[in-house]
Design a protein that fits this description.
5 helices; globular; 41% strand; Glutamine Phosphoribosylpyrophosphate, subunit 1, domain 1; six-stranded antiparallel sheet; 237 residues
């Protein structure tokens, strides 16, 4: 698979929806994850990311304008021991709770499907990073309607063992803008990862569509001791 430019992937797509990036820094010493949300409706745009323990959650920027919290208020990031869970919905809690009961990432996601938001049937995208004794592996998942039909759910998991330094994978909910919104297709995109957290956060935020971007979260995790540094950028201030 050809390595793609994350700049081109973001700048060339006005509405990738929500996206997850997981990978490794060029020096191979840190795991990287990023999660962003975008919005077209007032309800979707009326959000910010806030810290919540070792993770984050979404919060209404203006509570008076919050219409339906069911698909917009959730915890995108939670930490379970040496595992960091990143998703685009409340399946974060499903993964956390069932993995805490010794089930696997895949087993947990078999209990879930795409979002109940016709006609889009937005895919649920999820990622998990596992860091132990300096080693790092991760997996990504997408739960999709069956080619736009809510009668079936297609579940795909992609696992990456000992990922290469300086690159990562990128998965997002939509191919681009449209009515209905077309679901992401194929395996997660292979992208380059460069720079420290300040540089990478700036790179992602500046290349997300200005009108539609809402919030961005980036975390760099030290592979040796599990310590991490995070950044949150919110359009609403």
């Amino acid at each position: 698979m050809k390595q793609l430019s994350i700049v081109q992937e973001l700048a060339g797509n006005s509405y990738p929806g929500r996206g997850i990036i997981i990978g490794k820094t060029p020096d191979g010493k840190q795991a990287v994850t990023a999660y962003f949300i975008m919005g077209r409706s007032e309800n979707s745009r009326n959000r910010v990311f806030v810290e919540d323990g070792e993770g984050i959650r979404t919060k209404a920027f203006d509570p008076a304008k919050l219409k339906d919290p069911s698909l917009v208020i959730y915890a995108p990031v939670r930490v379970l021991g040496n595992k960091t869970i990143v998703t685009n919905g409340d399946q974060t809690d499903t993964i956390y709770e069932l993995m805490d009961k010794q089930q696997t990432f895949e087993q947990a996601l078999r209990t879930r499907e795409f979002e109940p938001d016709p006609p889009n049937y937005t895919p649920r995208i999820s990622g998990i990073l596992h860091i132990e004794n300096g080693s790092f592996n991760y997996a990504m998942s997408i739960l999709k309607s069956d080619n736009g039909s809510p009668e079936g759910c297609n579940r795909f998991t992609f696992a990456y063992h000992n990922p290469a330094a300086g690159e990562g994978r990128f998965i997002h909910t939509y191919q681009g803008d449209g009515t209905p919104l077309p679901s992401f297709e194929g395996e997660p995109k292979r992208i380059g990862i460069s720079g420290g957290i300040d540089e990478f956060t700036k790179l992602l935020w500046e290349n997300l569509n200005e009108e539609n971007k809402v919030s961005l979260f980036v975390r760099y995790i030290n592979l040796e001791d599990g310590t991490y540094e995070s950044q949150i950028v919110n359009k609403n201030k």
